[in-house]
Amino acid sequence: MRTQVGIVGAGPAGLMLSQLLHLAGIESIVLEARARREIEATVRAGVLEQGTVDLLDSIGLGVRLHREGFVHHGIELRYDGRGHRIDLSAHAGGKAITVYAQHEVIKDLVAARLACGGRIVFGAAGVEPRGFDTDAPSLHYSADGVAQVLACDFIAGCDGYHGVCRSAVPQGACHEFSRSYPFGWFGILAEAAPSSAELVYTHHPRGFALVSTRSPTIQRLYFQCDPHENVDAWDDARIWSELRARLATRDGWAPVEGPVLQKNVVGMRSFVCEPMQFGRLYLAGDAAHIVPPTGAKGLNLAIADVRMLAAALAEHYRSGNGPRLAAYSSTALRRVWKAQRFSWFMTSLLHRFPGATAYEQRLQLADLDYVTGSDAAQSSLAENYVGLPFEDATC
Ligand code: RFL
Ligand code: PHB
After folding, report:
1. Residue 160 Cα to ligand 1 middle (Å)
2. What are phi and psi of 171, to 5 degrees?
3. Ligand 2, from 48, 185, 202, 212: best to mutate by most atoms within 8 Å of Cβ?
4. DSSP string, 84-132
5. What is the mean pLDDT of the chain?
6. Which secondary structure element, helix H or strand E, spans residue 186, and what is its range?
7. Which one of the listed residues 203, 297, 316, 351 is annotated catalytic?
8. What is the band of 392 on the pLDDT scale with cuts at 50, 70, 90?
9. Which residues pair with 203 in a beta bridge?
10. Candidates 220, 263, 264: which one to mutate for ligand 2, based on the most atoms within 8 Å of Cβ?
11. Ligand 2 touching residue 293 (CB < 6 A)
12. Which helix (H) or strand (E) holds 307?
């Protein structure tokens, strides 16, 4: 088998890359380890930046998103029992965010790929990128127990943080920068009407809490927990009691409660691999970098990477010469590091850090006071939250 671009991973990065390449007249095949129903059911991100929505619109994939997603023009920062609204649109040139679940984006992308005759190999086992330091890279894998080789011009490693592409890079070629946080997020899906029209990010002495939503009948909420927390130790009553305590305001606000449908604990890490290119292997999305979810940047960054990569590959195939392809890693990393900075800022602003001194706790409150009281600070937060402008044109 042969294709122009062999893509590993059918997450947002891999699927979007494949669709953008198709629209630029470039063939690709996606190899995905999991089954279609699994990738379409995994609950993860929810916040889409304006640029992500605009890109989905521009390729005709905005219909369901606009019908079922929620456009938010602001977020609330809550601390000391009081809420402070940040008007995102007023501070970021009219831009907004859309709350639309990642697995719904995945469903839309899979449907679009298949409708265009695109190939996604689900259940691809033992994927191994080879020869990416030569002009003849290939992906070795097995499907239904039969060994296969996919020869290609380029390999796109879109296989997430635990994928095989980054680990195929020779030791020493990849410089890794990382930070782990001494807490995780306990995430729930609950059957209840939205508690709030906009997202609520809360700082509380018991720890961070976040109110988000999914639909008129399903809410998504998170609270800071021990990274090794046992979800089975938390029944519905205990979960709601903790959320009530952290989210309470002086004027008696309380979340709308309902049965908890799903619960899990998410670790918090920051990670960057530099560079993002090794010969003919290009990494994109979580395969190259991850952020703690407090800034809602991971999925959006994955989409931004492949937008740049697709434009660079299109230029390469069009002109036979690819200055953009050569610059992919450095161009992408500039955006990546700004998202790292913002995610670190939001995480530091809002969480309770075990062992923080009284002095550090006071600084954190001063930071919250500054951000919610200063127009300049709100503009900075809003500009980053809705998504920084793209430096590069689309393909
Ligand atoms: P993904 O989504 O991990 O997809 C990688 C795909 O590769 C497959 N794969 C392999 N396939 C073949 N062979 C192998 N050896 C393979 N190994 C792996 C996997 O099965 C999978 O299908 O990476 P991608 O495409 O880079 O997308 C990244 C995003 O998924 C991630 O950054 C976001 O979910 C992060 N995130 C958020 N991002 C946002 O922009 N906004 C948010 O509101 C937001 N909230 C979140 C989040 C992540 C969370 N968790 C669970 C960490 C909230 C949470 C709780
Ligand atoms: C979500 O709705 O899942 C969500 C919202 C905001 C975040 C992270 C996750 O910062």
Report:
1. 6
2. -55, 140
3. 212
4. EEEEHHHHTTT--EEE--HHHHHHHHHHHHHHTT-EEEET-EEEEEE-T
5. 96
6. strand 175-191
7. 297
8. low
9. 79
10. 220
11. yes
12. helix 298-319
